[in-house]
Amino acid sequence: MSRGGLALKLGKYISFIGSLIVILITAMSVSADTIGEQSSAISTETSTESRVDRDKINEESKNNSQTTSQITSNGSLNSVDNVANDTDNNLNNINSKTEIKNIKEMVTTEKKAAVINKPKAPAEEVKNGWYSIQNDWYYYKNNSMQKGWLQGGNDWYYFDPQSGRMQKEWLQGGNDWYYFNSVSGRMQKNWLQGGNDWYYFNSTSGHMWRKWLQGGNDWYYFDSTSGRMKKNWLQGGNDWYYFNPVNGHMWRKWLQGGNDWYYLNPISGHMQKGWLQGINTWYYFNYYNGKMYSNAFFNDGGQTYFATFSGNVHSPKYISQWIPVRAPEGCTIASVAMLMSIKGEKIPNMYAAYANLPQSGNVFTGVGFTTIIPAADLVTYVHRYSNDIINISGSSISTLVNYIQNGHPVLYYGWSGYESRYWNRNHAKVIVGYKNGNFHVYDPCYNYQWDPAGTSGGGRYDRGADKWISWGDLASEYNGSGAVTIV
Q1: Per-domain residue ranges for the chain?
Q2: Which of 167, 178, 404, 420 could bond 434 through an S-S bridge, CB–CB 3.0 to 4.6 Å?
Q3: How does pLDDT run across 283-297, given as a tens digit for each residue?
């Protein structure tokens, strides 16, 4: 081969080496664009492999150069032809499909490695549990925001159905009210103090109590609207109740309010009205305000009564002018004794009272008797026993009714069953009650209270010891000439 041909083949060989370098650089650029910073290690590896290939090629080129030098020095054209042929063979080998395939596989492997090692985006946080956001609390479960009711152990919480914000303080649910702790948000159970008021919440469901509640042996009442624990007085239907102003316990015993006394039933707690039986006594409470009658006259069911300062109630007692002391003309003293009995008072010595009565004749035998003592003189005489006896002579029957309806029994002058002439009203009786136009009369001219009509003289006015008479019957014998009462 001529020198020109050899030079041509060497040029082709060098040109191929340059093309190979361009291909490797291009592959490296593609890898860099694909994998970014993470592919630097791969590029370095590729560069190293490329450098190895170039070194190999340069080594071969060096050998070829040495061969060329040998050819030049030896002047052997055959040797040059041999080298040229070897070079063509090497070029053919490099350009073979196998070498190109290897290069492609290397580039593909590098790309795959770049894709595999590509950094992943950080995973989104999965929310679970409590989260505080701008001073409000929220609850998440598997990234889902809690709304409505949530049970946590023995506690309950509520979250707004729109915003999911944890509820604090008051919440209305239908017709019920609930309260949630202003800090923890826990649903309130049992007792809650709010200012000066107390509330109670069902220990299971948590709804606010608005009715009667029994706690141990005590009872409480919570307002049907506000739910506040009741203190002091409460009206329930026709009844009244009282609740301790400090702890709210329903009162079930005696209660003093100012100068007045009340009684609250020991079982039901309702305020006592009317009659109450105590130990060996009776008490009476106003039907409207429940106040116990004290040091006062009153009328109940048409009967006259008096309540002492301690509330003990007395009614007029029947006293006979025949027993235990027989005093046929002593009706005025026996009648005054009945007036005094309404206050629980007594004439200490009935015999002496009869014997000293400033009246004509003998009260025991009737010798010299003409008429009973005038009402004014009688009042003066009995003041030695009671200053509460007053003279109301001249009063109309209507006035007498007014006294009786206010609880004051009335002594009046009329006739007895022994009367036959009906000139002077020589007999004293006591009206102890009035109802529907009728008068309840005690007549002392009998031995016992249960003695019937016809057992004392047999006359017109022998009506019995304890008798209800009509207005007309009273008017037939009372003319205002004598009337006495007690105040």
Answers
A1: 129-206, 232-312, 316-486
A2: 404
A3: 999 999 999 999 999
